Task: structure prediction
Amino acid sequence: MPKVAILEHIHPSGINLLKKNSAFDFEIIENISKENLINKLPNFDAISLRVIKLDSDIISKCKNLKIISRHGVGYDNVDLNSLKSNNITLAITATANAISVAEHVMFMILNISKGIDMYDSAVRKGQFLKKDKYSKTFELWNKNFLIAGFGRVGKILIKRCLGFEMKVYVYDPFVDEKTIESFGGIKVSDFNGSLKNMDYISIHMPLTDKTKNLINSSNLKTMKKNSIIVNTSRGGIINEKDLDEALNKEFIFGAGLDVFEKEPPDTNNPLLTNKKVLLSPHSSTFTEECSERMGKETIQNIIDFFDGKLDQSMVVQL
Result:
């Protein structure tokens, strides 16, 4: 009987899948200190993982471990070399979070473009009639929108953008032009060259050596002064120091960040006090619906693995 370790909280609907399946034994491990994990995890065949780090010290002790099922799509908290050398499968919740993330992008774009917080604050402070104090706001209609990375989130996001009658461009070297056009988008091949024509940019890429600091001082200076950039994928793709400078020098109008290079960000990170950036705590998937889908998918991946029918689109190629 496979033993499943559930690290950190997941939605009860995911745990219920194990409760109803007599072929599995499971334990919820609340003490996630490294010392406790080294002591406990060698007894388990599968691990449900959220955000804590599983390094080589821990994984090397897990001689029975066959699969780690990540509650999310990122996996930079797992030592991939250890997984590969020990023939451990890594699965992700590839389909669960796309809707929630795409909606979070639209929330940030609308908030920044329409000055929602500014207007709300003005009314509450008795500044209802002081229209000259308001910052400028924008329509989304007929604006140029660049989706950088056309995976599941990008394919859902484009529908929302087209609903606002925006012109949507897509940068993704791994997706062909015909596919992008079938979704109503226009493929661009030159990322840096395309930025100067965009009103909005939304990042949907993994953090790799190639994408680290993809948005930096050099290309921020080429963008429209009214442009807005949003990142809900991974911190480090946008150079935070360069972004802060670009906002302060009005190279661009605004930004929305759900992710940071270091999480949580240091208290002295200048973006925390920059009024031109809208921040959220890596929470684009924190909807009730998404939480339930991710909980179920995390556990279903484990069940499917041992049943020999795990969807390969859920598996990270190590």
